[in-house]
Specification:
Helices cover about 30% and strands about 25% of the residues. By secondary structure, the chain is an alpha/beta fold. Helix 5 runs parallel beside helix 6.
């Protein structure tokens, strides 16, 4: 059953939604999809931001993002990581930098992996988000990376938001938790998406 989700939640309100699952996904992603010397693009969602604490052990890592909260987390690791943030307009709802400046910035980056999240995923619409400004930046980030990994906890499954982020065919890996519906997992795997259940 698909449900609509037109309202965009505030960043701080998203932190308390499914915190245990988000933490598991974040840790798994950091431990399995990051290597020394990588250039990582990390968008501003709470699940992706939760990865930061697990990056401290890597060497020569470069992390680039568009989220103020993610940057604040990364600031604690500046001694160990190279950290960059795009420019642009700061949105108060999501605490993200968006707009043409942000998009242009990411178009000039060559990254190893792009870590993204979104508001919802359905078999019919794919991965969707409520803000066109956010979507444009996420697309620019995704286009600049060799590999696209989505971290979507099970609460995002069956949710259809305003517009598609990227085609499902562009997604290399999707990490979710064991409460995600098996029929949708099967549909994604049928489209050759590597789904990891954590």
């Amino acid at each position: 059953l698909e449900r609509g989700d037109s309202a965009e939640p505030l960043f701080d309100s998203k932190r308390v939604l499914n915190p245990t699952a988000k933490e598991r996904l974040a840790r798994y992603a950091a431990e399995h999809f990051v290597a020394d010397g990588d250039i990582l693009l990390m968008e501003a969602g709470t699940t992706v931001a939760a990865m930061v604490k697990y990056l401290a052990g890597y060497q020569h890592l470069t992390v680039i993002g568009n989220g103020l909260a993610t940057m604040n987390e990364l600031a604690r690791l500046v001694a160990n990581l190279n950290v960059y943030c795009c420019g642009g307009m700061l949105r108060d709802v999501a605490l993200t930098f968006v707009g043409p400046q942000a998009e242009d910035y990411f178009r000039n980056i060559n990254a190893t992996t792009c870590f993204l999240s979104a508001t919802g995923i359905t078999a019919s619409e794919g991965i969707t988000d409520p803000s066109p400004l956010e979507i444009q930046v996420k697309r620019a980030m995704a286009a600049s990376a060799d590999r696209i990994i989505f971290l979507l906890d099970s609460s995002k499954f069956g949710v259809r938001s305003l517009s598609r982020v990227v085609p499902l065919s562009d997604v290399d890996i999707l990490v979710t938790d064991s409460d995600a519906p098996s029929d949708l997992i099967d549909a994604l795997r049928a489209q050759r998406i590597d789904v990891r259940i954590v």
